[in-house]
Amino acid sequence: MNPHQSILLPLVLAAVALLCAGWLYRRQRRTASTGAPAEDDMTLITLGNLSLSRQDDCFYNDRRERLHLTPMQYALMQMFYLNDDHRLTKPHICRALWPGKENADETLYTLIRRLKPIVENHSNLHITSDRGRAYVLEVND
């Protein structure tokens, strides 16, 4: 075995070990994050029967099942939950979600139209429009 081969073998083995460790770490994080929130999760914000876990960055229903949302749907729902009256004006949403877009009204309308059935089918919440000026997340009575 020449000197170059004796140095190369430990480097290759170390690189393989690092790749395996990284893969295992990512797999464990992905598996751990799909579980339900802990009972004592102090980062939960609940409205109706849907909870935002700020620790896990996701929403759970009352059966502790994760609600599957796109990143934009999640961002909008998080905005509703973090606002005290759960009411957001259209300009506020558009500036937050699409800061460089001059007129994002149609994009917002599409986002709301796709989010409504998900929220309404998996919780006792619904999104209403306040005469075209704002959207409100409310609990169904």
TrEMBL record:
One of its GO terms (molecular function) is DNA binding. Residues 42-139 form the OmpR/PhoB-type domain. Keywords: DNA-binding, Membrane, Transmembrane, Transmembrane helix. Signal peptide: none annotated. The chain crosses the membrane at residues 6-25. GO terms for biological process: phosphorelay signal transduction system; regulation of DNA-templated transcription. SUPFAM superfamilies: C-terminal effector domain of the bipartite response regulators (SSF46894). Residues 42-139 bind DNA. This is Helix-turn-helix domain-containing protein. It comes from Candidatus Bacteroides pullicola.
